[in-house]
Amino acid sequence: MEFVLDQLIAFASSLYTLASDPLTYLYLVASVFLGIVFGALPGLTATLAVTILTGFFGNKFPLEQSLIALIGAYVGAIYGGSYPSILLNIPGTAASAATAMDGHPLAKEGRGGEALGITTTASFIGTLFGAFCLLIFVWLLLLVAKNIASPEKALLALFGILLSGTLMSQDLVIKGWIAGLIGLAMAMVGMDPILSEARYTFGWSYLLSGFQIVPVLMGAFAIPQILDGMRAAVGGAAPLPVGRIVPRLREVMRHFPGILRSGGIGTGIGALPGVGEDVAGWVSYGVAKSVARDSSRFGLGSLRGLISAETANNAAIGGALIPLLVLGIPGSPPAAALLGALKINNVIPGPTIDPALIVHIVAILVMASLTMFLMGLFTARVFILILKLPRTVFLPVVLVLTTIGSFSVGGGINDLFLMLGVGFAAYAMTAMKYPIAPLVIGVILGGLFDETFRRSLLISDGDLSIFITRPGAAILVALNVALILSQIPAARRLVAACLPKSPAIGKD
Amino acid sequence: MRRFLKAAAVAALGFGVVSAAEAQTYPYRDITAAVVWGAGGGTDTINRMIMAEMEKHLPVSINVINQTGGVAGSNGMVYVMNQPDDGYTLVGLSESNVTAAVQGGWDQKFSYWHPFIVGGSPDLISVPANSPHKTLQDLIEAAKAAPGSIPAAASGSGSIHHLNLLAIENGTGATFKFVPYKGSAPGQEAAVAGEVAVVVTSLAEQQALIDGGLLRPLATLTPEPAKVGSIDIPSAFSVYDGLDKYLPLKQAIGFAVHASASDDVKAALTEAFDKAMASDTVADWAKTNHYDISGQSGAEASAVFAKLESTFAWTLWDLGAATVDPATLGIEKP
């Protein structure tokens, strides 16, 4: 308890120092805006925003100032990814893929303003939640994160793929799983992470580095969108009404329990080394759907779904900083870029880090989230105008943006062929009512699953019991099995048949 | 109107002459350094640090970007190879890139580059803090008693840490169960989580975990001992005689320009590099981060990389982990 009090006092003084320096605002406004733009442009990621600023600041500016800019851009980019997700159904970053599930249907209903407003609020509260967890529970969360090894990571990745398959399917759940497995198979292409053997490359050197995530993401989400638009937009779509942006306090209060739950999930997942904002959004969305009393609105424009995804991916920022600061192990890709920035300034994050720096970073996070909130309500007004553009104008622009986004990562023409190939396949799958998101999640998490699953078996000499003898792994195995069984009608009937009996057994 | 056009044409011509005159002295526009490894890693950090320092001695800025992916950093090397050899695109690299050719990532020997070596950090062999093994001898004896059963982490097949682990095995007769990781950080993370019992990575990478009491360093894999805080780390060479036969390898992190670049370009870069390396900033940085400074460039640095290339390439070939025969690339046996 004394620790909590000390941390709060240190935080208050750090926040005061920060808030009373006019320079802070200059850095915050510029960097949060840059972050939002990077997040909103398809293909440009939070990692890139932080990396570019790391290069710009180098060791030429005091660390306190460059940290304000880096964290501001990080927070802005994770939030900014929600704009294209909601407005165009194209996730700006992988972290906001779950946001599109309910955000875009809302925009189509003419509630785009409301969706952006509630997203801004959810991101704001999520970031604050993560920041306070970083302040108060830093050592506690560390204990959990430290014990996550290969078996747990493999099962978590599998859970993410199965979960998105389960949630995204329009008719049959098995279609979602099939899409997820196709993504998993695509992730196997390239150099094998354990033995460094080439797999499924057919002697073509481009395939050695595997399918890059950004072209797959762009192709899978943007191309079907554009093709659909080309078919539908001949007459020019009527501009959609925008609606109110600033959310009503009553609305926010009504969703408060959900916001807290999603914040907790987001921070926890962010704190796991190597698992970041993208997984946080999906898991939180999945949990929200499974605990909801009426889950029929999910995927059709549910505010609960939107809030759960957006709160969690922003809460994951504070979580991702925990292993970075106290172990020197980044919790997410943008956190890895932050690690570089700390190191070139002679700060070695790890168990010997100056506790004052952690408190300072929490203060920056709080200031950055506040800036993001105020700025977001303003920029949302500008971005929402996209909806008023006729689709015949903005779809070609979207195509150009996604092409540039795919090209910018590797700088090769093959990435564009990959984007188009995945795009046409995705369009065909959409037409057959196969969900696309699980495929993308399969590609994103497949590499992690492959590597950690096989490494677990390498360590156990091929003994599968390693997945049930570790307590964390056993829980995750149970979750995976339950998820699969819950979708098998026979198993469901069995559970339904057993349930009324069990109290009877209790009475005897 | 016509007069305006004429004036504009003259002005344009004038600018052309000026820029042609400037073109004679390299550099007159900003330089880009493409680092082939990811943000936050050793090569990335060193390049951002040294480029910021070299900028102070050059009239232009140096932008550091990351071009990752491929095999042993081949994406970034191919990217820079495809840029003009005018010295405006540099490549940030490390000793681990010398295996790109034998692993099929690209088709050039390392002598394609004119390298500059900033330095490297000695490798350590360490165990988790709660490990029963207190010294290197304890660990080696345990490994000899149960060959191939103690899991040991090092980053991917063919990395310097993997080759150093092999060298320890060859030099002491012990065998471990080699578990590859994608980088040093995940390997160390696995050691802290108790997934592996031994980890071989560099001192710079391990220091935070050693300081925090999460890893126990057993020995350095270089002739010199090291010291982290109050912990003295002996050299493995002082424990096992004859290890020097097997452990000739040391990290070499830095950057390079096309070997085909003009002498003016190389001279300008070397001058800025030498001045930067002599600065207090670099010395302080190296001390805090446990790096040994090298400062070699040109022929000297090329010789270091040629030796690394031949050792790495042939070791991988003998392990069956190389896809291209080093002999066909003209890489001599060590």
Number of domains of chain A: 1
Oligomer: heterodimer
Give me the strand/helix succession of chain B: HEHEHEEEHEHEHEHEEEHEHHEHH
Shape of chain A: globular
> Given the helix and strand composition of chain B, which structural class is it?
alpha/beta
CATH homologous superfamily title of the largest domain in chain B? Bordetella uptake gene, domain 1
**Biggest beta sheet summary of chain B:** 6 strands, mixed
Largest interface in this structure: A-B, 49 and 57 residues
Radius of gyration of chain A: 22 Å
Structure commentary:
The complex is a heterodimer of chains A (508) and B (334). Chain A is mainly alpha-helical. Chain A has one domain (2-489). Chain A is 74% helix and 1% strand. Chain A contains 23 helices and 2 strands. Chain A has helices spanning 2-19, 22-40, 46-57, 63-80, 82-88, 97-108, 112-136, 138-146, 150-168, 173-187, 213-232, 249-254, 256-271, 277-291, 303-327, 333-344, 355-383, 391-410, 413-431, 437-459, 466-469, 471-485, 489-507; strands at residues 190-191, 198-199. A two-stranded antiparallel sheet of chain A has the order 1-2. In chain A, a hairpin with a 6-residue loop joins β1 (190-191) and β2 (198-199). The radius of gyration of chain A is 22 Å and the shape is globular. Chain B is an alpha/beta fold and 334 residues long. Chain B folds into 2 domains: 8-119 and 251-329, Bordetella uptake gene, domain 1 (D-Maltodextrin-Binding Protein, domain 2); 123-245, Periplasmic binding protein-like II (D-Maltodextrin-Binding Protein, domain 2). Helix content of chain B is 41%, strand content 19%. Chain B contains 12 helices and 13 strands. Chain B has a 6-stranded mixed beta sheet, sandwiched between helices. In chain B, strands 7-6-8-5-9 form a 5-stranded mixed beta sheet, sandwiched between helices. In chain B, α5 (160-172) links the parallel β6 and β7. In chain B, α2 crosses α9 (263-277). The radius of gyration of chain B is 23 Å and the shape is globular. The termini of chain B are far apart. Chains A and B meet through α3, α16 and α20 of A and α2, β2, α3, β7 and α6 of B.
